[in-house]
Structures are given as structure tokens and as C-alpha cells.
Specification:
With 120 residues, this protein is α/β, with parallel strands linked by helices. The chain contains four helices and five strands; from the N terminus they run βαβαβαβαβ. Strands 4-3-2-1-5 form a five-stranded parallel beta sheet.
Length: 120
């Protein structure tokens, strides 16, 4: 079933359970032939930094790094909130595969009209 799907993620290590489930859902949407964006905002932007998610593993789920790698390898896109990223003084040269720093307009453009979304 083609179409678009968005997952908004505001958490990272501050709620590893929600961060993990967000990528489980994002991968499920990819497997359902959706064009998927994970919008990383607030603390979630930290996940866009190489090495940050390497030690996050919630019981009962694949490690977060594997979920994120699978998402990027499957063609998923990660939009990283520019103001949130800058506020945390993170390093633009250390973005993970599939991550791109964007302003809110890029997310609005992707979602267009009637794009389903979930938030964590």
C-alpha cells in the first residue's frame, strides 16, 4: 500500500523504550511499502550523532542501532530538527547514514496533505 508515513521522535536515552518503539514502527511502515520519515526533534536529535545509539538496547527488541541502520538501509529518511540540533551544539560532521538536518518547512512539505503520523 503506497503512501507516506511520519514518525516524530522527541526522545533518546532519556526514554530508550520510546526511541526503540519509534524505530520498530518506522521499519514496519517501510516493510509496508511506505515512504517513511522519522522526524528527530527535542532530545531525539541526539540519535543522529554517530555512536550515540550504540549502547541502547531495550529488552525484547533489537538494539536501537540495528533498528536505525535497517531503517536507513531500507530507504527511510531521518529529518533532524535544525534548531534543536543547534541548541544542543551537536556536530553536523558526525551525522549517521540517512540523517539530514532540516527546518520545519521540509517536514510540512513531506507530510503535505493527509500523511499519517505517530509521535513518541
Amino acid at each position: 500500500m503506497p503512501g507516506k508515513f511520519t514518525v516524530t521522535l522527541t526522545y533518546a536515552k532519556d526514554n530508550a523504550d520510546k526511541a526503540t518503539v519509534a524505530f520498530v514502527i518506522a521499519n514496519a511502515a517501510l516493510a509496508s511499502d511506505k515512504d517513511v520519515v522519522v522526524f528527530l526533534t527535542v532530545e531525539g536529535v541526539r540519535l543522529a550523532q554517530q555512536g550515540y545509539a550504540d549502547d541502547i538496547a531495550e529488552e525484547g527488541f533489537a538494539p536501537l542501532k540495528k533498528l536505525m541502520d535497517d531503517f536507513a538501509a531500507g530507504g527511510g529518511k531521518m529529518y533532524v530538527c535544525s534548531p534543536c540540533f543547534k541548541r544542543r551544539k551537536l556536530d553536523e560532521t558526525k551525522l549517521i547514514a540517512g540523517a539530514v538536518i532540516v527546518g520545519g518547512a521540509k517536514l510540512v512539505e513531506f507530510m503535505g496533505e493527509g500523511c499519517p503520523s505517530v509521535s513518541f
